Amino acid sequence: MATAENPKKYKVIGTRPVRHDGADKVTGRAKYGADIKLSGMLYGAMLRSPHAHARIVSIDTSKAAAMPGVRAVVTSADLPAQGDRIVELGEGAANMRHLTANVLAREKVLYKGHSIAAVAADNIHIAEEAAKLIEVTYELLPPVLDVRQAMSDESPVLNDDIRTASVGSAPATKDSKPTNIAKHFLFEKGDVAAGFAAADVIVEREFDTSMVHQGYIEPHNATVLWNTDGKITVWLSTQGSFSVRQQTAELLKVPISNVKVIPTEIGGGFGGKISVYLPPVAALLSKKSGRPVKLVMSRTNVFEATGPTPGSHMKVKLGATKDGKLVAGEAWIAFEAGAYTGSPIGAACMCVFACYDLPNGRVEGFDVCVNKPRTNAYRAPGSTHVAFATETLVDEICEKIGMDAADFRIKNAAKEGVRRVDGPVYARVGMVETVEAIKNSDHYQTPLGGKYRGRGVASGFWFNCGLKSAASATVNPDGTVSLLEGSTDIGGSRTGIAMQLAEALGITAEEVIPTVGDTDSVGYCDVTGGSRVTFATGIAAIEAAKDIQRQLVDRAAMIWEVDASKVSYSDGGVHGPDGKHLSFKEIAGKLHATGGAVIGRGTSSEATQGGAFGTHCVDVEVDVELGKVQIIRYTAAQDCGTAIHPSYVEGQIQGGAVQGIGWALNEEFW
Amino acid sequence: MSGNRVVTLTINGDHVEFLCEPRQTLLEVLRNTLDLTGTKEGCSNGNCGACTVLMDGRPVVSCLVLAVEAEGAELRTIEGVARGSHLDEVQSAFLEGAALQCGICTPGFIVQTEALLEENPNPTEDDIRFYLAGNLCRCTGYDKIVRAVQAAAEKRQVAAN
């Protein structure tokens, strides 16, 4: 992210107002997905696979359907067949055959916890008991649980429709043999062999990481009413209402305009609440029963069937001269995609050397299916794995050549004009500044005292993105503005967006009343992810403010009976000839008499974003008897651009750091 | 299931009577029968603390309490923390300190903090971290929560003096 050389003076941006949804969230009034209750609502439960890999021979739902209190039972036979369709879903494309089979298993179950059937009943206990009465006959198949095993020619193959898609190569034909290797990436830059030949020190290591779950506290949920007029309403917590609308419509093969998604408050996501699991199932149960149906996952379901970030096997090699210049790098990265293709291997390949000015590099990556849950985005998906590998090697090089870890990173930092191994050339970026901030910190300047203590420094990169956002804003007669935007708010973004509207209009944050709208009330917004929302939906809100300014100028011109070209908007009001002035509040009070409502609208599309860098420094102490690792001190430097609401920027950095500590020290599954 | 039971108790100062099945948890009854959805369900196995309520002044995870066990109890839930239309010190400290992001864990943290400050009005950082160890937050990294609890304790001390 480019660093502003001359930061502007703001009145609202950079302050720390209490968030608009705050009172609801500290009193228990905020409505999350599982809090939805509708008239006549049924409760659903799902039957899930106890096996990691099996063919479904038969499913008998008759006993469940006959149980008193059961209103509907569905299996994949109730979902329309998708065939070989690739659909653009707002944040990447999806193979619809795989998406539908992940929602309700078709011929095979591909991981423990894979959903097979669902029941709707008068209460959750009846639904759960009925689900247990569904009889499934399985033909067990050998599970494939290791990425390298999955890549071998002898491995059982999970999906008979996957052939390797190789970047830059002709597509594999249908006649070729199915494989677990869904994608292959290869990026090269410079002359790798010559680069390593010029190196004084070369380090090469292999790394294995396990799947890690996003671990949001709120389980997945969906409440759906399939009405008698064919309209489907979905209440749920999601990172992307419009993505849920499209996925649900595509899976049910109904027009998107038949699906209305009403986002509730969301209890965490971290990338894991973008993909659809429950809405199509609840929709089918609702259609069959004629009643609204609520499905909520248990914690076990969440861990077994949603998320996670891939496990990986990585081989990374770095070469440097003895005076500390990186000369070559090579990486071989295999990601566990889970049951279906779609791990963030592409991003991993782009990020592995992204922090450095590497003259010669070769990066090869593989997206590999294994009998584990299908993976999903998780906080800079793919970048975290490869940062672990590369940064470990950088530290080792520093030790070998006796160079300070911060100095080495500054010397080799990616900067404006540097070309990444995968091609793009950086604009103004902030890698150097984050390392310098750490180097100059009190933490780094303080020697590490005590026995069994160590200090680590690591840098990381993420692209960020702009994508599409929309907002509208209505001026109220009392001088406030009601802001409607479509980005579900996962951690204070509605306030950050409202603050930008307030700044643009010259009013206070408290004078803006932000609402996250449903898919029928606000323009299309891409998902809440990729660090895009405060930025891109903020731009939409600023555009809406400018639209309001233009309309207020016209109203003032009408009131003053002057040409609009003589009127301007600045400093929270309109200014005309001969010192004429009306504050925002004053002119807002005159709208009813001058033509009615003023509604501003704004959109943003593919706004140019800078990549973001971060450098962290941490001291730990190891209890050599117990093996327990204690974090002694942690300092993070993040290139965040202009902090709109600094408290929530700090919160993102702190929360990210603690999740990283969890990954490093405590967390793994599968 | 037959054998529904009548349970009589006090919730946030009000006399309440409900009918429940013996297998229903207190959490399920609070949320589904009594519509007190401020108490959140995160794991239903006692790990996350999102469903914490005060039962006779003691913090309990309501997912591990059967509703019938609440017979005669005095319950306080997140809905009973604010004083009328005014937030109490803990609630306002969480807001002013930005001690929440998604907010799903917040009711549990606030209720647990009420119990902490009742027991120990002047807790150290270690006291706070220890007392809140049963409440999980995946968003904040805990730092701002600990600071908010410290701020609430100070505010309450000032008010008491």
Q: What is the element layout, followed by pairings?
A:
The complex is a heterodimer of chains A (670) and B (161).
Chain A lengths: L21 H6 L14 E7 L5 E7 L1 H5 L3 E6 L10 E3 L4 E3 H8 L4 E2 L5 E7 L2 H9 L2 E6 L6 H5 L13 E2 L14 E9 L2 H6 L3 E9 L11 E6 L5 E5 L4 H12 L6 E5 L15 H11 L3 E4 L2 H7 L6 E9 L5 E13 L6 H7 L9 E9 L13 H19 L3 H8 L18 H9 L2 H4 L7 E10 L5 E8 L5 E5 L7 H13 L6 E5 L16 H28 L7 E3 L2 E3 L5 E3 H5 L10 E7 L6 E11 L6 E10 L7 H20 L5
Parallel strand pairs in A: 1-15, 9-10, 13-14, 17-18, 21-22
Antiparallel strand pairs in A: 1-7, 2-6, 2-8, 3-7, 4-5, 10-18, 11-16, 12-13, 12-15, 16-17, 19-27, 20-21, 20-26, 23-24, 24-25, 27-28
Helix pairs in contact in A: 10-11, 12-13, 15-16
Chain B lengths: L4 E7 L2 E7 L5 H8 L18 E4 L2 E4 L12 E3 L12 H8 L9 H14 L5 H7 L11 H18 L1
Parallel strand pairs in B: 1-5
Antiparallel strand pairs in B: 1-2, 3-4, 3-5
Structural class by SSE content of chain B: alpha+beta
C-alpha Rg of chain B (nearest Å): 16 Å
Largest sheet data of chain A:
7 strands, mixed
Class from helix and strand fractions of chain A: alpha+beta
Strand content of chain B: 15-25%
- How many beta-strand elements of chain A? 28
Q: What oligomeric state do the depicted chains represent?
A: heterodimer
Cα-to-Cα separation, first versus last residue of chain B: 54 Å
Spatial arrangement of strands, main beta sheet of chain A:
3-7-1-15-12-13-14
**Total helix count of chain B?**
5
Task: Outline the biggest β-sheet of chain B.
Answer: 5 strands, mixed
- How many runs of DSSP E, i.e. beta strands of chain B? 5
Number of helices of chain A: 18
Uncertain regions spanning at least 5 consecutive residues of chain A: none
